[in-house]
Amino acid sequence: MPLWRNTQSRYGLVTIISHWLTAITVVGLFILGLWMTDLTYYDPWYKQGPDIHRSIGILLAMLVIGRLLWRLANVQPLPLPSHRNWEKRAARMTHVSLYLLMLVMFASGYLITTAEGQALDVFTWFSLPAVVTGGEVGVENLPDVAGLVHEVVAFTLIGLAAVHALAALKHHFFDKDRTLVRMLGKRES
Known about the structure:
By secondary structure, the protein is mostly helical. The chain has one domain (13-183): Fumarate Reductase Cytochrome B subunit (Up-down Bundle). It contains six helices and two strands. It has helices spanning 13-36, 45-73, 85-114, 134-137, 142-173, 179-183; strands at 120-122, 126-128. Strands 1-2 form a two-stranded antiparallel sheet. β1 and β2 form a beta hairpin. It is elongated, with a radius of gyration of 19 Å. The protein starts with 12 loop residues before the first helix and ends in a 6-residue tail after the last helix. The mean pLDDT is 91.
């Protein structure tokens, strides 16, 4: 089996790289989003910060959708025998929740920009057209509503990602199992 594909005992390189790239990007976008809220109209980053945030967000959306498709097309490593049933259920619920929260983040971020009919430019590479506007769905303040959803979901996503990371550290340092090292790409010794 090639190293880039998952097996029942280990994650493949595609899964590992996309996991860490997603994690780093989510944290980076969260920090950038927080920083942007303090920008004033006359700040040179007032337009550039959100442009970067939106562009990276769309690229992340593409990565996450690719990850979901990859996940569906590949075997997933089996839980370790030492994992308790409640840990398996919690891990499954956490992963589903992380994906759902990211998808809501992408949709709400898209709506913040496109709700009034303008396209969303991704750097200078391509543009995503506005599919629906606030007037079409009867929500005149759609950018504000989408912005509130985006903010609440961002904090929820970061909180759940922190719990996910703490659980991996618990498995590594307290349970002394291979949960974390499997996602780091380390082989069995």
